[in-house]
Specification:
Blueprint lengths: L2 E5 L3 H12 L3 E5 L3 H8 L10 H11 L2 E4 L2 H7 L2 E4 L14 H12 L5 E5 L7 H12 L5 E5 L9 H6 L4 E4 L3 H10 L1 H5 L4 E4 L1 H32 L3 H9 L20 H14 L5 H24 L8 E5 L14 H11 L3 E5 L4 H5 L6 E2 L3 H5 L4 E4 L4 H4 L3 H7 L4 E4 L6 H6 L3 E3 L8
Helix pairs in contact: 1-3, 5-6, 10-12, 10-13, 13-14
């Protein structure tokens, strides 16, 4: 097993560091954010991810996992260095790799013996060569290898995805690098996890191609749901029948208010920008992006229609703020568009989310946040479900109706049966099940 430094303790770095140490490697998770490292050394976790606390505690106790701000020392002590820093979307649509390049410079300055440098961050195609060039420009005397090892972690299921992945993609240019990575991931080889060995550019492309395809599936089923509303169809039955086809599968055929999170919006835009630079028009991905934007706005239009055409002076309960359940991530959440439009229209918002309220407070500090769904909906003119938390799935609709000033609900996640809403006297809308009784 190897000594590994993981640079960056955000979502990918922290889950990755915990997982790599669980495989038996000695792992140092590094970050320049002293507050974050101090939290981790005190047993506090800066992100919400089910199961992560247990894996961290187990490996800290075993001595395989530690946290440090001394990046120089960690690089010199390690056999393998994973780059897991942020690559946010830049103003030009591309992923901003400035943090990756900064880390590459740091590695070059501290290269004393052979190392394997591995990028886990989602980076544009061609970044691998840039990292190699930066390191060589600083230190061309010490041998090293470079690997692209993209992550495929679903927020809310990231620990499971890392420890029991569908596949592992390793992009390298020589057998030595492949052998080192096989040692890093030895437990997965023993378990016969599918391992894709390819070159660097292909590995970088696989990440973007995968995320863009999933985003495309979401936008597609949302558009079919919108069609169902016009023709009195049932999107649940349509999606179920489609999913029974082995060529299609049922995954990501769940209509809703549009995709969000840290990956799909950023990666689809980055892929389009990269393709445009190469003179390739990826029209399907462009259409998915456009459809997703329209879907989010469409939810606002549905709610506006339900409350009589104007949000002015209306009290609206917004239940669910994260882009999906089991995470506190609000990045590109459909709830943000809903809140912005409600505020613009003069609504009085009462917001509640089991986990993500602290995250949303950073963007909307002056919203009225509630301690539960009951105070959030009390005397509200309407309620909108933006995230399908189990707490909302099990909500007592009869109790909900009694608490509301008006029995109006927008269910953007299709978690309530239309026949039940109709029986209880609700005015309602959902996504593609409008006419189902």
């Amino acid at each position: 097993m190897k000594t590994i430094t993981v640079i960056g303790t955000g979502y990918v770095g922290l889950v990755g560091g915990a997982g790599l140490s669980d495989f038996g490697n000695t792992v140092i998770c590094c970050d320049i954010d002293t507050e974050k490292i101090e939290m981790l050394n005190n047993g506090e976790i800066p992100i919400y991810e089910p199961g992560l606390e247990e894996v961290l505690a187990r490996n800290i106790k075993s001595g395989r996992l530690s946290f440090s701000t001394d990046l120089d020392l960690a690089i010199r002590q390690s056999d393998v260095i994973f780059i897991a820093v942020g690559t946010p979307q830049g103003e030009n649509g591309e992923a901003d790799i400035s943090q990756v390049i900064s880390v590459a410079r740091q590695i070059g300055k501290n290269l004393r013996s052979y190392k394997l440098i591995c990028t886990k961050s989602t980076v544009p195609i061609g970044t691998g060569q840039k990292v190699i060039d930066v390191i060589k420009s600083i230190n061309n005397n010490i041998e090293f290898d470079y690997v692209s090892n993209p992550e495929f972690l679903r927020e809310g299921a990231a620990v499971k995805d890392f420890l029991w992945p569908d596949r592992v993609v390793i992009g390298a240019e020589n057998e030595r690098a492949f052998e080192v990575m096989k040692d890093v991931y030895r437990p997965l080889y023993i378990n016969e996890t599918p391992i894709v060995l390819t070159n660097i550019a292909t590995a970088e492309t696989i990440k973007y191609a995968s995320n863009a395809f999933l985003a495309l599936k979401i936008s597609y089923i949302n558009e079919i749901a919108n069609l169902c509303e016009k023709i009195e169809g049932d999107i649940h039955q349509v999606a179920r029948a489609m999913g029974l086809d082995g060529r299609i599968s049922s995954k990501f055929l769940h209509p809703g208010p549009g995709y969000g999170g840290s990956c799909f919006p950023k990666d689809t835009n980055a892929l389009v920008t990269m393709a445009d630079k190469q003179g390739i028009n990826i029209s399907t991905v462009k259409a998915a992006i456009s459809a997703n934007d329209l879907q989010k706005q469409g939810m606002v239009n549905k709610l506006r229609k339900l409350v009589g055409g104007s949000f002015a002076s209306k009290r609206i309960a917004v239940l669910g703020l994260s882009f999906k359940p089991q995470t506190d991530d609000i990045r590109d959440s459909a709830a943000i568009i809903m809140i912005e439009e409600l505020l613009k229209g003069g609504a009085d918002i009462r917001a509640y989310d089991p986990i993500a309220m602290d995250s949303m407070k950073k963007s909307f500090p002056d919203l009225h946040y509630c301690a539960g769904w009951q105070p959030a909906v009390q005397d509200a003119d309407a309620v909108v479900i933006m995230t399908e938390w189990n707490e909302f799935r099990g909500l007592d609709l009869e109790d909900l109706g009694k608490r509301l000033s008006k029995k109006i609900i927008l269910d953007t996640r299709n978690i309530y049966r239309p026949v039940e809403l109709k029986r209880l006297g609700f005015s309602y809308e959902n996504v593609g099940r409008m006419f189902v009784v």
